[in-house]
Amino acid sequence: MSQSGRRVVLASRPVGEPNASDFRIEDYPIPTPGDGEVLLRTIWLSLDPYMRGRMSEGPSYAAPVPINGVMEGEGISEVMASNNPKFAKGDIVAIRSGWQSHALSDGKGLRKVDPNLGPISTAVGVLGMPGMTAYTGLLEIGKPKAGETVVVAAASGAVGSAVGQIARIKGARAVGIAGGKDKCDYVKNELGFDDCIDHRDPNLAAKLKAACPNGIDVYFENVGGAVFEAVFPLLNPFARMPVCGLIAQYNDTQAVVPNWAPALMRNVLTKRLNIRGFIVSDFAAMYGDFLRDMSQWVREGKVKYREFVTEGLDNAPSAFMGLLKGANFGKQLVRVGPDKV
Amino acid sequence: MSQSGRRVVLASRPVGEPNASDFRIEDYPIPTPGDGEVLLRTIWLSLDPYMRGRMSEGPSYAAPVPINGVMEGEGISEVMASNNPKFAKGDIVAIRSGWQSHALSDGKGLRKVDPNLGPISTAVGVLGMPGMTAYTGLLEIGKPKAGETVVVAAASGAVGSAVGQIARIKGARAVGIAGGKDKCDYVKNELGFDDCIDHRDPNLAAKLKAACPNGIDVYFENVGGAVFEAVFPLLNPFARMPVCGLIAQYNDTQAVVPNWAPALMRNVLTKRLNIRGFIVSDFAAMYGDFLRDMSQWVREGKVKYREFVTEGLDNAPSAFMGLLKGANFGKQLVRVGPDKV
Questions:
Q1: Which of A16, A297, B47, B272 could form a disulfide with A302, with the two C-beta atoms 3.0–4.6 Å apart?
Q2: CATH says B4-125+306-335 is which class?
Q3: A74, A110 in Cβ contact below 8 A?
């Protein structure tokens, strides 16, 4: 076993789209666990759009990563050594240990992963934060009723794919939006959405309208930008809009399009829309319900998922830059280390 | 008694601010009630900002007034003759009979007014639609907790004054926004708000910030425009925003300010805001609770109100144009006829 670990730190704050130069890859000595601590070896790193927000300063729900700090993120790790009675060598855990190969933990925020529920990578995917984001936002805010129409973008991604499939389980019509024919075919044919529209289609608005003949009752907002503008005129009275992400806007530096904030507010009033932002931890109390329902749905084949694996931590920055552009097809993971050493 | 009635019809659809020429005043023969009908004589006409929306075409929660149609509105009337067993001559009723001196009704939508609850004009004010808009929007969507800060604009008006006073009853801090020193003094000294800011103050944003040292937990949105832009940066995480009106935008024809829709959505996400439009009829089931609580609070002096009376139906158009500019000071009423003939 090497005595050096590998990590990705934030070298500079990106202006607009992140570049390779905003990241720096470093070696560092693998630390030794002290009293009550465990040493962790990262197997999977999850890459998620919210990370773009952590790269910038400015008000958000969480502090930014400091310059020269290890990039934040959740991963799946193996306990290599333990001075903590709650964890044993060989345990598989999920932890926000960042973009690095090894980390210490005092056990706080460490969540044991049950390998019987599915492949351990699903603990940062369909059975983890993205799946729970879909489950809680859709059921607690979106509240789809049977026969209603639910629209979600990034529909082949970790969150969007779960949103549409849960909507179908609840008897609603699911219409996805995704980038390109392959993803749209997958969303319709594999995931069972009622329809899926390519967001690159120059007639996005007209196509979406045709796919939603009864309007839109729930728009699960995870992208923002042009998709939102296509969705907006189709929202029905009393439509609900859980907002968990705005990936299309994350790289925005300045708005140069016509101001439609007044129109937005006018529609909130005339259609009695309900727009509500959330992050998954707001619904932490639902974790038990989520894991029970979602793992059952996955076992029964009612919720399918797809993983998109990038090999090696050194490729995490380029994988992340690709994620922001939709280059991934399924849940973006980075294979940091083997399942077993 | 004259055989001619008087009414105000919509002559043309205003572009931007309504002008006198958008209205036409007409005489018409007072109708005779048929089987099951009652003849009504209008005593009070209520003027409310939502009426601006009814003057324009375009999607809304209600159809527009047709050209040459009688302007819509609710008033307080006396039953002059009745062929309907549910109503007797002399009954006082509230009805959406429009801007006219006399009307027929088959009894549908006719609501008897109990003169023991307060002056009959309050049935279109603090004990009517404006009061219930404040009550339902604040309690069902705003949900102020003790110690939280509630901000409302048009704070000396029919809805805003009730919002702040109910917020105080619930133990919250109430900060009003109103036009001019007289209104602000009234809001603070008579209505008991904790503070009130003049929206004409060039330092509105800074003054509002100083008045809300702990941020804003509930913004009851009834004006939109510049006030919303001052409120927006002060919203706390998990702030709630019931939206029942956007009077500052009603005359807008085109938006020429910077586009801040993306910023709005970004804040919805990062602060987990809940923005929800409503109209009072969405909460019709709460009418009993509202009337019980509000009439008690009025009797106990916990909720005060102020009426702003314009004499004569012929002056209704100018009173309405004034209302859109904040020329009224209190609930805008038009005295159409005497209490008794």
A1: A297
A2: alpha beta
A3: no
Interchain CB distance below 8 Å, B276 and A276: yes
Asked if ipTM goes beyond 0.90, one says no
Residues carrying CATH 3.90.180.10, chain B: 4-125+306-335
Binary contact (A246, B257; C-beta < 8 A): no
Residue B255 to residue A252, Cβ atoms within 8 A: no
CA distance A249 to chain B (A): 7
Would an 8 Å CB–CB cutoff place A53 in contact with chain B? yes
- Collect all residues of chain A within an 8 Å Cβ-Cβ radius of residue B49: none
Q: Residue type for A6, please? A: R
End-to-end CA distance of chain A, in Å? 9
- At the topology level of CATH, where does A129-299 sit? Rossmann fold (3.40.50)
Write out pLDDT tens, residues B62-110.
Answer: 889 999 999 999 999 999 999 999 999 999 999 999 999 999 999 998 9
pLDDT tens digit string along A278-335?
Answer: 999 999 999 999 999 999 999 999 999 999 999 999 999 999 999 998 899 999 999 9
Fold of A4-124+306-335: Quinone Oxidoreductase; Chain A, domain 1 (3.90.180)
Domain with CATH 3.40.50.720 in chain A: 129-299
Give the pair of three-digit tokens for residue B272. 């987990």
CATH 3.90.180.10 residue spans of chain A: 4-124+306-335
State how far Cα A98 lies from the chain centre: 15
Contact A274 B279 (CB under 8 A): no
Q: What is the pTM of this model?
A: 0.86
Q: Are B151 and B218 in contact (CB under 8 A)?
A: yes
Is B96's Cβ below 8 Å from some Cβ in A? Answer: no
